[in-house]
Design a protein that fits this description.
The protein is α/β, with parallel strands linked by helices and 762 residues long. The chain starts with 8 loop residues before the first helix and ends with a strand.
Length: 762
């Protein structure tokens, strides 16, 4: 079985991670994968038995399918969220965290072992190890309504928690005695707090606690691109191992005993520090690498990296959803991949210059390895990161080593005073560098283009580290050719590279459509709102749902805000848009409203000197890339109609080549009938925003016959009106119109080159 080589671990890790993710999201068909896996496995065994060379290629495919299948099965517990269940439960507290309005207590139930997040009043302060008995309903945590909004369900899933409860009755019984681990952490923490004037940074570096690390400093480090230095990671484990090695080597111990002592001490540190995946990665690589060195075995750090990755995923599949796990493995993997090429220090005769250049190169490789993840998670990447890391790393090392000594009770030696001085210097450096802390965002790029360049980066590292496989000159020529092709693709006109994007944003029971043209022009049609008739009082959909989504999409300017009409469920969310973002022009129907929301809206338009235009039928707006927004209704305001604000809604048609999209606001049957029989405008459209949230009063079959849509979207949320009405949805089904609602999340429709369009999200 020559195919079972260590290098195969490089296939196991990424495809196991992919299998867990796709399986937990329900994207994989286990029956199809199992069938293909079984058939290819039998074929590979037959070809391998016959000695056919093609068997090696088949073995790679068998491994890929096998890891996808294993990943799917590993992800089953994560996607099997509990159904709501009511009762009385008893469990043991293993984590406590104070939130803004209550206290979250993570509990492991005694009966089933299920981990549950129990929310108690802030005045309650249970401790780790306490027993809690509570009555209530354990259910799923809420999902984020839109990307960019905090997702409580995903957050708890990363912690291995799959239920949440807000108990009606509860009782906390204090633990008889505190556990050894808790007592040790308390002692270490108290030593730091006592000896260090500003202990927040030291606690974060030594024990992984960020409770006392101010939000301002965290934001500063994020903008500088050095937040990774705060995580208990390979750097921390490496320096602790170095210090332990210097001490243990002086002891009269054999090689194996030294290894056991050092690794045992590292394990204790990782456990006490409550470390995440990055620290466990470093520890396991250290254990496996040290053992291989002791036994005289050849080792490739990249293969150890992959082996540790799939071992961790097999033990805890939820790590796939842990941001720290992804960032840690991506950065370390990129450095290991390029390490044979990064021997920059040997190019310089000056050792100090060689160290500086080598450190910058390693930091840049780590930054490039993280590029698509940073842009995906945070929407930006700090340009100053490599340089800032080089500047702050020596100070972080001093704080970490000194803080560890202080935590161990050696603060009386005056170490705390030295740490205070170091932090003052770091504060001065932060103030000096923060004005230059520029962030790189996608801008005109798409994530697909970023990933193409990232794959070239990975492929180049793989080829350049294997000079014996191909001639170096040929390899470099090939990489340059690929780079030129990618550069050519990236320079094509936007209309060829990107689609027109129309997203129905989930704003509850309201309308909100975000339009992005291929050239990056942004249009917002309505903004949702907090109507007092059906939504919770005190909520602000604009702040809670719309602005986070736009920030996630890296939108800092809305070129055109179009208000179909001025009811709360279309207008209120736009207040936050006008307050937080730059707006080029506001377009509405000119029909004034008496509500405070409308008055505030117009005040913001005037205060911010935003261009304003009251549209009428026949007006059109050129958006570039051959895209036009046409106003089809009203020709003039009709205040005497029933439901006058609804029935004076702007009727908009977005035209891109042969694909048309029709936005109907809250128009009702009376106006829809007039449009069908009297309008001189072409109403045909392949995509339709169903009028008035799918209400029965806006169902006019003649209108749908004239429009003749293939796709439809219903903007709807929890309401007491019965929207969407069953007659509407039944009619859409009978008419074979593919329709979606925004109740479960945003719905995106892409139009490519003005030729064809499709939904790209469920």
């Amino acid at each position: 079985m020559s195919m079972l080589r260590p290098s195969n671990s490089l296939f196991l890790f990424p495809f196991l991670a992919l299998g867990i993710y796709l399986g937990s999201q329900g994207y994989l068909n286990v029956a199809v994968i199992s069938t293909f896996f079984s058939g290819l496995l039998i074929l590979w065994l037959y070809l391998a038995y016959r000695g056919r060379a093609v068997g090696r290629w088949l073995f790679g495919l068998v491994m890929i399918l096998g890891m996808l299948l294993v990943g799917y099965l590993s992800g089953l517990p994560e996607k099997a969220w509990i159904t709501p269940m009511e009762g009385e439960y008893t469990g043991r507290v293993y984590q406590v965290q104070a939130l803004a309005f209550d206290r979250r207590v993570l509990v492991r139930l005694s009966s089933t072992g299920l981990r549950v997040a129990v929310h108690l009043p802030l005045e309650e302060n249970p401790r780790v190890g306490d027993e809690i008995t509570f009555s209530g309903t354990i259910s799923e945590a809420r999902e984020a309504p839109n990307p960019g909004v905090f997702c409580y369900r995903q957050y708890l899933r990363r912690l291995g928690v799959f239920g949440v409860c807000y108990p009606d009755v509860y009782e906390v019984q204090a633990a008889v005695r505190t556990g050894l681990l808790t007592s040790l952490r308390t002692w270490l923490r108290s030593n730091v707090v006592t000896q260090v004037r500003d202990p927040g940074l030291v606690l974060a570096l030594v024990l992984g606690e960020r409770d006392q690390l101010g939000q301002e400093r965290q934001e500063t480090w994020r903008r500088l691109g050095i937040s990774h230095l705060l995580a208990i990671s390979g750097m921390h484990v490496g320096f602790v191992a170095l210090g332990l090695g210097l001490v243990v080597r002086r002891l009269p111990l054999g090689p194996l005993t030294r290894l056991v002592v050092i690794q045992g001490a590292l394990l204790a540190y990782v456990v006490v520090a409550g470390s995440g995946a990055s620290a466990w990665r470093a520890l396991l690589i250290s254990v496996l690498g040290s053992y291989a060195t002791l036994m005289g075995l050849r080792q490739d750090p990249l293969h150890l990296w992959a082996t540790v990755g799939w071992l961790l995923l097999l033990v805890k599949p939820t790590l796939v959803f842990d941001t720290g796990f992804a960032l840690s493995f991506a950065a370390s993997g990129g450095i290991l991949l390029w390490s044979p090429v990064l021997k920059v220090s040997s190019w310089c005769s000056n050792r100090i210059l060689g160290y500086v250049v080598s450190s910058l190169a390693i930091s840049m490789i780590a930054q490039l390895s993280l590029a698509p993840l940073l842009l995906g998670y945070f929407g930006e990447m700090a340009i100053l990161g490599p340089l800032a890391t080089l500047v702050f790393l020596p100070f972080v090392v001093v704080l970490m080593i000194g803080g560890l000594l202080v935590a161990l009770g050696l603060g009386s030696l005056g170490i705390g005073l030295g740490l205070n001085a170091v932090m003052r210097v770091m504060g001065a450096l932060e103030s000096m560098l923060i004005p230059f802390a520029a962030q790189w965002r996608l801008g005109p790029w798409t994530r697909a283009e970023v990933y193409l360049w990232w794959f070239l980066f990975i492929y180049a590292g793989w080829r350049l580290r294997k000079p014996r496989l191909t001639k170096p000159k040929r390899t470099v020529a090939q990489l340059i050719t690929i780079a030129v092709v990618l550069f050519f693709i990236s320079c094509l006109p936007p209309a060829l590279r990107r689609p027109l994007e129309v997203t129905a944003v989930n704003v509850g029971q309201g309308d909100c459509y975000f339009v992005k043209t291929p050239s990056g022009l942004h249009l917002l049609i309505d903004g949702g709102g907090d109507s007092p008739y059906w939504q919770e009082r005190g909520r602000n959909v604009g702040e809670e749902r719309l602005i986070p989504y736009l920030q996630h999409r890296q939108v800092s300017r809305i070129d055109y805000v179009v208000v179909s009409h001025h009811h709360e469920d279309h207008l209120f969310g736009l207040l936050a848009v006008l307050e937080h973002l730059e707006v080029g022009m506001v377009i509405d129907n000119g029909y004034e409203h008496t509500s405070p929301t409308y008055e505030r809206f117009m005040e913001l338009v005037v205060a911010k000197d935003i261009d304003y235009y009251a549209a009428r039928a026949g007006d059109s707006l050129k958006l570039g890339d051959g895209i036009t927004l046409r106003i089809l209704y009203p020709e003039s305001l009709r205040p005497n109609l029933p439901s006058p604000h609804n029935n004076n809604s702007l009727l908009l048609r977005l035209e891109y080549g042969g694909v048309h999209l029709l936005f109907t606001g809250d128009l009702e049957n009376a106006v829809l009938y007039d449009l069908v029989h009297d309008s001189i405008h072409d109403l045909s459209a392949g995509w339709l925003k169903v009028p008035h949230h799918g209400s029965r009063g806006s169902l006019l079959e003649e209108f749908y016959e004239v429009v003749n849509p293939n796709w439809a979207v219903i903007s709807v949320g929890p309401n007491s009106f019965g929207h969407p009405h069953s007659e509407v949805t039944d009619f859409l089904d009978q008419s074979k119109i593919t329709w979606r609602t925004t109740q479960e999340g945003p719905i995106t429709f892409h139009v490519w080159w003005g030729l064809w369009g499709r939904f790209t999200s469920p």
